[in-house]
Amino acid sequence: MNELVIRQPDDLHIHLRDDDVLPLSVGHVSTQFRRAIVMPNLRPPVVSTAMAIEYRKRILAVTPTGRLFDPLMTLYLTDRTTPAEILMARESGIVHGVKYYPAGATTNSDLGVTDLEGRFKVLEAMMKHGVPLLLHGEVTDKDVDIFDREKVFLDSVLLRVVKEFPDLKIVLEHITTSDSVDFVDACSEKVAATITAHHLLLNRGDLFDGGIRPHHYCLPILKREEHRLALLRAAISGSPKYFLGTDSAPHERHTKEASCGCAGVYTAHAAMECYAEAFDSVGGIDKLEDFASTFGARFYELPLNTSYIKLVRKEQVIPPTYTYSGGAIVPFRAGQGLNWSIET
């Protein structure tokens, strides 16, 4: 297959950030995706419906003229989030989930939850009002090896949440292990997962290919090849539990190439081409449309998009950097080729 026309997809997990970099990230995502679930871990984080409304206005203000793009907002769960805020979020019509970060787990997560059990009344309100819980699924215990933190989270945290709140919609974001695939498969239809393009294309060896590769460093961290293959099998399986979420995250070059570099991979510039390459690598390109355009929309109870995009088997070379007024971002596959392109 050399070309593929699919319903316009949605990115159901992305970081757009704010301020100077926002026009760049919005410009890229709105080129390919009709909608996007926008993460709330700004500084300060988006902890209220009022803040989500204002952030959405800033996103729309920099959306290129003529593009149809709908940012779907989320709230940042903290130890101070209340059930009343959940009701306001639901009634706003623009908030589509609440994001749980274990405190200290990843970028801008220092205000995350320290006591999940203390948030159970909030989870009850989310279940009652139909607001999904979006999870960064790792524990932060320093005694747990970084490559095991996702699995330990499943056993010590998520299993209890699923049992306590059987009707709560849960998305286990950016899964990286076969353990997560097994867990999601065993749950009801209320539990789903997003999979990133970079976790489908890279394994942990790519972090050290010829030296340390800071632009491949992300959290959850890349895992063994056996786990990458498990993610690919899940993505092309046809199960509606798995759908597209890039977790694309813009970080200025000097913050990645540093003595203590930050976590995040920027894929918004060529996300669908990366997914096409991953699916094509295992003969599953015909499964891409459901994964990218159908399953996630249905999980979030959104209408299917009525516009289409065309992917063609045509090599493109990714620029070494994308510049903006605040600096430069090194994108995924910088200076390298991709086998697929979007025909405009």
Biggest sheet layout: 8 strands, parallel
Given helix and strand content, the structural type is: alpha/beta
Q: Report the sheet-strand fraction.
A: 15-25%
Secondary-structure element series = EEHEHEHEHEHEHEHHEHHHEEEEEE
- Count of individual helical segments: 11
Which whole number gives the mean pLDDT? 96
- N/C terminus separation: 19 Å
| Helical fraction | 25-40%
Spans where pLDDT lies below 50 across 5 or more residues: none
Strand order of the largest sheet: 2-3-4-5-6-7-8-9
Shape: globular
Rg on CA atoms, Å: 19 Å
Give the strand tally: 15
In short:
The chain is built from eleven helices and 15 strands. The protein is of the alpha/beta class and 344 residues long. The chain has an eight-stranded parallel beta sheet. The protein has a three-stranded antiparallel beta sheet with strand order 1-10-15. A two-stranded antiparallel sheet has the order 11-14.
Description:
With 344 residues, this protein is of the alpha/beta class. The protein is built from eleven helices and 15 strands. The chain has an eight-stranded parallel β-sheet. Strands 1-10-15 form a three-stranded antiparallel β-sheet. A two-stranded antiparallel sheet has the order 11-14. Helix 5 (149-164) links the parallel strand 6 (133-135) and strand 7 (170-172). Helix 3 (83-92) packs parallel to helix 4 (120-129).
